[in-house]
Amino acid sequence: MPSRLRTAPQEPVVSVALVEDDPRTRERLVQALARAERLCLAYAGATVVEMVAWLRQNSVDVLLVDLGLPDGSGLEVIRECQKLSRGTEIMVITMFGDEANMMRAFEAGARGYLLKDGTEDDLAEHVLSLNAGGSPMTPIIARQLLARLSPAPLRQGALPAAEALTARERDILAKLARGYTYSETAEILGIAASTVQSHVKNIYSKLAVHSKTEAIYEARQLGLL
Predict the structure, then answer these.
(1) Residues of 90-116 as b/e, b for ≥16 C-beta within 10 angstroms?
(2) 150: pLDDT confidence band, cut at 50, 70 and 90?
(3) C-beta pairs of 107-110 under 8 Å, 24+ apart in sequence
(4) Residue 102: pLDDT over 50
(5) Is the pLDDT of residue 5 over 80?
(6) What is the pTM of this model?
(7) Does residue 42 sit in the same domain as residue 110?
(8) I need a surface site. Which of 126, 161, 168, 197 has the fewest CB within 10 A?
(9) What are phi and psi of 82, to 5 degrees?
């Protein structure tokens, strides 16, 4: 009698929807999701109205939400999704790294919070982790959350004093904060990519940081953006 071969059960596909207003960033996120076999992108919107309208007719396993949308806040999308589909896991993907936005997002129902810098590289892994019950967070966001929940002595300490950024440095940092690459920023400003890199090094030095995400966060905290 011929033996029966057992095949390993296939893992379920995770459906994903996202809302992101910047076309370049949205396309990068879409491509990152498309590279993962277990993920299926069901919808990609650009505004609160578009996303809410879609959610009223459909549901997904995971919803990715940008907070700064042209017709309102992504928090509106999170709250509406919570009303319509309690089973949907929600993760914020944004350039806003301040404590106020972070806490509002978690209070609204988000279970993950990523800053846009470097998000695409590990996006699929973060989505799968969220769907499995995890809470993916950019390290600097996790530290803020820990600091807020920790006793007062662990939360002491002011932000590092920073020399004032030049107008050009602020302009470059603002472009990077919107998700533009070094090359795209250089093209927009009409300068060489190497010049952008040189300015970024100066920004890191002045703000005492080591990454673009930290630079954007510190600049916002200091009112430099």
Answers:
(1) bbbbbbbbeeebbebbbebbbbbbbbb
(2) low
(3) 108/75, 108/78, 108/79, 108/82, 109/78, 109/79, 109/81, 109/82, 110/65, 110/78
(4) yes
(5) no
(6) 0.66
(7) yes
(8) 161
(9) -60, -35
Q: Give me the pLDDT at residue 141, please.
A: 84
Q: Report the 10 Å Cβ neighbour count for 3.
A: 5
Sheet with 112-115, strands from edge to edge, namely 39-45, 14-19, 62-65, 89-94, 112-115
Assigned token pair, 154:
């662990």
Question: How many structural domains comprise the chain?
Answer: 2
Residue 138 sits in the same domain as residue 183: no
Amino acid (one-letter) located at 69: L
Q: Is the pLDDT of residue 3 over 60?
A: no
Quote the percentage of the chain above a pLDDT of 70: 87
Q: Do both 103 and 177 map to the same domain?
A: no
CATH code assigned at 91: 3.40.50.2300
